[in-house]
Specification:
It catalyses: (R)-pantoate + beta-alanine + ATP = (R)-pantothenate + AMP + diphosphate + H(+). By secondary structure, the chain is α/β, with parallel strands linked by helices. The protein is built from ten helices and nine strands. The chain has two domains: 171 residues, HUPs (Rossmann fold, 3-Layer(aba) Sandwich), CATH 3.40.50.620; 90 residues, Pantoate-beta-alanine ligase, C-terminal domain (Pantoate--beta-alanine Ligase, Chain: A,domain 2). The structure holds adenosine monophosphate.
């Protein structure tokens, strides 16, 4: 398995595959890969003849006071994980290779302004731009995204429809640690106390899920219970907890499927996200 640094080289490789009639899957990532990423790669390997994993900490999706500089990076460990998962190449460009004084950005209204978009106003423009570029560079048949970033999945599906990309978007379930914490490259920021405190995200979501299973239909009541559970944890500060429909991302008053119950919570200085989806 090769680590490829240039757009040209990826294009040449993919063109040669397509000439042979092979199908191509793409897994976009920011690297520092874990079992969550691995599950996406393995799914892509099952469903395609060749798989490209992009490994790029994309500067345009980070706000000015966010963690772009400190975001963890380890391309050698990533290469090992990709190889063991059966990927064909890792595309690991420098920022200049990807942007080269670019003036064009992809932006979207409405669904990028809610949930994480409120706290991270430029985030989804950066995501849509880099994913569009990766789609144009790799021209995959399918691209794989985790439900861990549920809003991102929703945004990408909408962008693909709006801009007529001929690519199937595949959503993959959240992979968790044994104790319930959703796997994330940002979990490495947590110290031992924060790691324990971070369990309030998955624990509170379980409470919400159970309330729905037990017949509660009032969204406000469920959100209050979820917030109360997080509120018990002194190291946690809620950014948002919301229940929205999983297409338009509009706030729900009554439980109604498909629904997304999503949250962002600061544990110390680390902002973590988690959710459950009912379809
Ligand atoms: P990232 O490197 O954080 O940008 O994530 C790259 C892709 O991996 C995104 O589609 C994420 O949703 C997905 N991903 C990250 N963590 C997980 C997880 N715990 N389970 C499933 N997918 C994940």
């Amino acid at each position: 398995m090769q680590i490829v640094k240039t757009i040209d080289e990826v294009r040449k490789t993919v063109k040669a595959w397509k000439k042979e009639g092979l199908t191509v899957g793409l897994v976009p990532t920011m690297g520092y890969l874990h079992e969550g990423h691995k599950s996406l790669i393995e799914r892509a390997v099952k469903e395609n003849d060749r798989v490209v994993v992009s490994d790029f900490v994309n500067p345009t999706q980070f706000g000015p006071n966010e963690d772009f500089e400190s975001y963890p990076r380890d391309i050698n460990a990533d290469a090992k994980l990709c190889e063991s998962a059966g990927a064909s190449i890792i595309f690991n460009p420098e920022a200049d290779e990807m942007y080269d004084n670019a003036l064009t950005f992809v932006d979207m209204n409405k669904i990028t302004k809610v949930l994480c978009g409120k706290t991270r106003p430029i985030h989804f423009s950066g995501v849509c731009t880099v994913v569009s570029k990766l789609f144009n560079i790799v021209q995959p048949d399918r691209a794989y995204f985790g439900q861990k970033d549920a809003q991102q999945l929703c945004v990408i599906k909408k962008m693909v429809k709006d801009l007529n990309f001929d690519i199937e978007i595949v959503g993959c379930p959240i992979i968790r640690e044994n104790d319930g914490l959703a796997k994330s490259s940002r979990n490495t920021y947590l110290n031992a106390d924060e790691r324990k405190a971070a369990l309030c995200l998955s624990r509170s979501l379980e409470i919400g899920k159970k309330m729905i299973a037990d017949g509660e239909t009032d969204v406000k009541t469920i959100i209050l219970a979820i917030k109360a559970e997080i509120g018990k944890e002194p190291l946690a500060k809620i950014d948002y907890v919301e229940m929205v429909d999983f297409n338009q991302l509009e706030t729900l008053e009554k439980v109604q499927k498909p629904l997304l119950c999503a949250m962002a919570v600061y544990i110390g200085k680390t902002r973590l996200i988690d959710n459950f989806i009912m379809e």
